[in-house]
Design goal:
Layout (H helix, E strand, L loop, with lengths): L11 E5 L4 E4 L15 H4 L5 E4 L4 E5 L19
Antiparallel strand pairs: 1-4, 2-3
Length: 80
Amino acid sequence: MEKPACPQKNPYKIRVEKDKSYFWCSCGLSQKQPFCDGGHKKAGIFQPVKYLANSDKEVFFCGCKITKHKPFCDNSHIKF
């Protein structure tokens, strides 16, 4: 698998908690999007991206998996 799967084109709006770690799925195979559930083990080359929240807030995790600013949406989904 060279390219990640695209579970959805739009970002996932998630409320994160300060000092909590989140592991964003980079392969698109997780059944618990946008977070990793180990599905990348089937894909081989992909690894989850750790995000440590520095405050309680809402963030937009990438859903298309082609962002240049992992794990966040950078509107790359608009291009396809």
